[in-house]
Write a structure and sequence with these properties.
five-stranded antiparallel sheet; five-stranded mixed sheet
């Protein structure tokens, strides 16, 4: 289950990358727009100057041709054309002046050049008017008309040349302005193009970085999804386990990976010690001598409830637990928390010459958290099951558990042909003791008697409270001799026991009578064997108490 740092898209680096991409795109768009706008403006100004120039030239020719046609034909409509052309020429000169200003020519120079051109046109028109007057006089005074017409035509010709020169000056000014504007436009377009390219490159670079990080983030999401799915499967397996030792084995298997060894240690309830619940790999020979196994306070994880990490045992001080310490490489011990405390730990060793990586630590801690939840449930279930079959006062098994256990042991005894010993215990004159000393003292005596019986039996035997001051001891594979030996240990122990909380009462505080029976010799059913043991107990009571009686062999057996 790999793990790594979360490359979240909300990270400031992603915001910066997106900002750079947006800025680059904006610069590219503005540069491209400026490039296009400068070109369009230049083209528009060129068209405007060309149109103004052509319009003046056209209207000037129109005015001249209409006046000459009038002089040649004398038709009045041609004279009206001349007047319209003259008015249009004045408007064209205004457009020419505005075009010059638009081309960023000096307003004064543009005005002077156009004014001089207009003055020359006016002088030219004046001379042509004289020619027209001479034309009207040709029928009254032919000589005068001829003389005046020839003079005016000469002046008109001179003014026509002057108009051409003035018009050339204006055109040269326009050309110079256009050339300067073109140069400046080229420079501006070059700058805009460079800005657009730079912005485009910035956008491409930032976008590439963002896409790369986005791809990395998607890969991270897939890895995290796979890790979470594996954790979910592990949690499902945890829910199906029956006890904490199975959970420990599942944890070592999941933690193992490519490590040399992993170990799970659990605290032993009711003691200060710990035990090795599961492990993978090979434990060192002195693992059983670890101080933490006899006193968990010597373990830093059990003492603090926090992770203990050694990256390099050569430069750091490892713990004293031989079951967890590694001299070859780094290791980590992670607590297993359950029911408000530290229930144990999982030890993980990185291997020779290696230190635990952050991803490995995250994986171990995730597994430990899931296991801790499972342990809480398992411990709660085990506690509930224990409470369901345990007598709350004495701590031994209760009547419910005894009934089921005894039935199973009877079946085993009959099937395998092995004896099954039964002891029925009853504390002598317990009611009188209770009345004389109180119920609290009676409860203390019951607890002490139960502890004494448990201490006297063998491992695998069962002590159960049958009811009141009566107890039953089940002795698998015990014949009459073995059963009587154990019964005597119990009787002697009760007679000699001291009761906590009752220091003034010296032994014997109380005694016990015991009836012994062995199945199948004293009965081939649970009821028959229990009845035989009860009869033997009654016989012990009748014989004076504080003694052991054996049930006679049943003829049916």
């Amino acid at each position: 289950m790999p793990s790594d740092t979360d490359p979240s898209v909300g990270d400031g680096r992603y915001v910066l990358t997106l900002g750079l991409a947006a800025a680059g795109l904006a610069v590219a768009i503005i540069g491209a727009g400026t490039y296009s706008a400068v070109g369009s403006t230049l083209a528009a100004l060129e068209r405007r100057a060309f149109v103004a120039d052509r319009t003046v030239n056209r209207e000037l020719l129109h005015e001249r041709s209409s006046l000459e046609d009038y002089l040649a034909t004398g038709r009045p409509d041609l004279l009206r054309d001349h007047r319209r052309a003259s008015a249009a020429l004045k408007d064209a000169l205004v457009g020419l002046r505005q075009a010059g200003i638009a081309l960023e020519m000096s307003a004064t120079a543009t005005q002077e050049a156009v004014d001089e051109l207009a003055a020359s046109i006016r002088d030219w028109e004046t001379t042509y008017v004289r020619v027209a007057v001479a034309h009207r006089l040709k029928n009254t005074d032919r000589d005068l008309a001829q003389l005046q017409g020839m003079r005016s035509r000469g002046e008109a010709l001179d003014y026509s040349h002057e108009i051409g020169e003035r018009f050339d000056i204006v055109q040269r000014g326009f050309d110079e302005a256009l050339d300067d504007l073109r140069d400046r436009s080229v420079a501006r377009r070059q700058t805009a193009l460079e800005a657009a390219l730079a912005g485009l490159l910035l956008w491409l670079a930032a976008t590439a970085v963002f896409v790369r990080r986005y791809i990395d983030y998607q890969r991270f999401l897939r890895r995290r999804s796979a890790r979470l799915e594996a954790l979910a499967e592990y949690a499902d397996r945890m829910h199906g386990l029956a006890n904490a030792d199975q959970a420990a084995k599942a944890l070592t298997a999941a933690v193992g990976g490519n490590t040399n060894r992993s170990t799970v240690l659990f605290r032993i309830p009711g003691t200060v010690g710990m035990r090795i619940a599961a492990f993978t790999g090979e434990l060192p020979d002195d693992a059983g001598n670890s101080p933490a196994l006899s006193d968990r306070a010597s373990c830093p994880v059990m003492r603090t409830g926090h992770r203990f990490l050694i990256r390099d045992p050569a430069t750091e001080v490892p713990c004293d637990c031989a079951a967890c310490t590694s001299r070859a490489g780094g290791y980590a011990c992670v607590p297993l928390l359950a029911q408000g405390g530290t229930a144990g730990l999982v030890n993980w060793q990185a291997g020779r010459g290696r230190a635990p990586a952050p991803a490995d630590l995250n994986r171990i801690e995730e597994l430990a958290r899931v296991t801790s939840l499972a342990l809480t449930n398992l411990f709660s279930l085990e506690g509930a099951m224990h409470d369901a079959v345990t007598d709350q006062l004495t701590g031994v098994s209760n009547r419910r558990f005894l009934d089921g256990y005894l039935g199973k042991q009877f079946q085993i005894s009959l099937r395998q042909g092995r004896p099954l010993g039964l002891l029925m215990l009853d504390l002598d004159r317990f009611k009188m003791f209770n009345d004389a000393n109180g119920h609290l003292a009676g409860d203390a005596v019951l607890r002490a008697a139960a502890r004494t019986a448990v201490a006297a039996v063998r491992e695998g035997d069962l002590v159960a409270r049958y009811g009141g001051e009566e107890f039953v001891v089940v002795l698998p594979d015990a014949d009459v001799t073995a059963s009587l030996e154990i019964a005597e240990r119990i009787r002697a122990g009760v007679e000699a026991m001291r009761v906590d909380g009752l220091p003034s009462l010296r032994p014997p505080v109380i005694t016990v009578s015991i009836g012994a029976a062995v199945a199948p010799a004293n009965g081939r059913t649970v009821q028959a064997a229990m009845h035989a043991a009860d009869d033997a107990l009654y016989a012990a009571k009748e014989a004076g108490r504080n003694r052991i009686e054996t049930a006679p062999t049943s003829p049916a057996a």
